C-alpha cells in the first residue's frame, strides 16, 4: 500500500510517494505553471505507482474551497494567479486517480506534519506560518484543524508599521497586512533586492522581525498555543529568530506568561518537508478510518 502527497505551492509543486512505514520512495519538485501542464506532471509522477496507490493528500495554495457540501469543493477559488482561479483541483485529479483524495491548505498540511511527526502528537495546540511568497497560517487544536465557514487566513492579519518603515505594503487586497509587509515579495519591493541578498547585518531584519513578532503576539493572545512555528523561504535567515523573540518580548510587555521563547517560537522540525509529511499522514489516515 502506497500513499501520495502533493504540496501545491504558488511557485513550485512537490510530489511524493511513501510506503506504510512512511518511508519516502520518491520525491520530486517542479515549477507551478499552467494548471494543465502542472497537473500533467503530477499525473505522470503518480502513474508509475498507480497499482499500489491507496490515497493522495493535497496541501494547496489558496484560497481553496474545503466545504464538503459546496458545489465548488476541491476548487482553488480567488487566487491572484489568474490561470488557477476556479480550478477544480480535486475533480481533475479524480479523473485520473479514483481513490480517496484529502484536500486542505498547504499550511494546514505543514502544521499537521509538525503536529503528528515533528512533535509526535505531544502538543494539544500548534500553529504554523509560512513566510514565503505569501504568508499563510494553519492551526491545530486537539488534533483538529481550526476552521469555520472556511480555512483560516491568518497571513493577512493587520500589523502596525515599524517606526522606521514607511513602506505601504504590497498586498493587493489590504496593502499593509502581514503578507503585504513581511513576505518575500514585500522585502524585494521595499529594498529592491531579494531577501536572500540582504546582509545579515542589515537593520532591515529588525523591521522584518517586528512584523513576525506582531504575528506571534496576536497568535498568542488568540490561541495560546503550545508552539508557534515559522517556516518558509524568508525564515532561511536563521538569525532573525532571536530578533523575533526580542521584539515579541517587548510587544507582550509581560502581559501574559508564555512558554520559554526558545521552545515556543521556533522553526519547523521537519524543515522543508512539513507539508509533504502532513499530506502523507492525511492520506494514510484516510485509509485507516
Ligand atoms: P513559496 O512561498 O513560493 O512556496 P518559499 O517558502 O521558498 O516558497 O518562499 C519564497 C520566498 O522566500 C521568495 O520571495 C524568496 O525571495 C524568499 N527567500 C528565499 N530564500 C530566502 C533567504 N535565504 N532569505 C530571505 N528570503 C528568502
Ligand atoms: Zn492582505
Name the descriptors:
Nucleotidyltransferase, domain 5; 289 residues; five-stranded mixed sheet; globular; alpha/beta; single chain; binds zinc ion; 34% helix; binds adenosine-5'-diphosphate
Would you write up a description of this structure?
The strands form 3 sheets. The protein has a 5-stranded mixed β-sheet, with helices on both faces. The protein contains 9 helices and 12 strands. The protein has 2 domains: 2-106, 2-Layer Sandwich (Nucleotidyltransferase, domain 5), CATH 3.30.420.40; 120-268, Nucleotidyltransferase, domain 5 (2-Layer Sandwich). With 289 residues, the protein is of the alpha/beta class. The mean pLDDT is 96. Helix 3 packs across helix 9 (274-288) and helix 6 crosses helix 7. The longest helix has 20 residues, at 204-223. Adenosine-5'-diphosphate binds at residues 9-11, 130, 132-134, 184-185, 194-196, 232-234, 236-237.
